[in-house]
Fold this sequence. Notes:
The protein is of the alpha/beta class. It contains eleven helices and 20 strands.
Amino acid sequence: MYQKGRAWIELDMNHLKHNTEQFRLLLPSDCHLMPAVKANAYGHGAVLISKELQEQGVESFCVASVGEAAELRRGGITGEILILSYTHPDQFGDLIAYDLIQTVVDRSYAQELQQDGRRFKVHVGVDTGMHRLGERWENIEEIAEIFRFSNLAVTGIYSHLCVSDGMTALERDYTFQQIHHFEYVVEELHRRGIWNFKCHLQGSYGILNYSELCFDYARAGIALYGILSGKKDAVNVKADLKPVLSLKARVESVKMLYQGECAGYGLTYSAGENKKIGVLSIGYADGVPRSLSNCGYVLCNGRQAPIIGRICMDQMMVDLSEIDSVKAGDEAVLIGRSGELEIRAEDMAQWAGTITNEILSRMGERLERVAV
């Protein structure tokens, strides 16, 4: 099947390999990458990305659900797969069938796994201050007890830094407090004779802003794909990261919009003068935010084409008046390069008033993912 007929994502696997090498240079030699490939690898395509990472020697991955993990297994991923979220007891059998590692989200969940009667591989979540999942760091006896459950093979513990992307004194102090809480738990477990487990704490910004930390794994996420969450984000380490993803669509039709005529739902765009417009074969069902209606631009033939009218489910419209020689069947670039110009995912996120993580993770399934 032709993969570039309507709208598609191009994945530069050389950039992914480059970014992987950059992170390996940043991290201590005995710290291994555990890439976050949840949410379809942030929209990039979980199986495609994970297979490439596996070929690069990555042996551990983390996802959000049993379903995501099962997809990786069916796609040929053989390394460790950690589920970062809750799994319903009716799915406990899948943890064994697919050889998965389940997060213990708190002490009562550990008891539920224990009472199932089967033996599970688990990592214990520790709440060091985000107050999302994990047993509170102060509850050291409850955490230690989880290691003594006979049906739980505890191979790791971890936490998550909630403001490691922030550079203010308050944010850095809070992050150091979380680090201290996590290290306290590790030390207390060691003091109780519990040693045989791995530790991980850092996500993308934990690596870029606190690369001096030395744990067994690092859960690189958004930055592994060559972008940051926000265009104005500052990081301590100036890693040479390259975007992996480009988003493109076909020009379906080129037509005239005459002075005074309106385009699109709701009549939100009115032509102040005669305009040449293009209809693109991509819309909000593909993940283009509807909030970009009459906002931002795409690239056609190396020039900017402003977005006009409301973005539809399957199409959107752009102003081609200042661009020569655009015809039906040509490519339009929503994220990526065209000629000397580039639109980054950070640009689209800024126009839409959100972060790149949300933009990319909402990229629709009907977008073909093409490795280049």
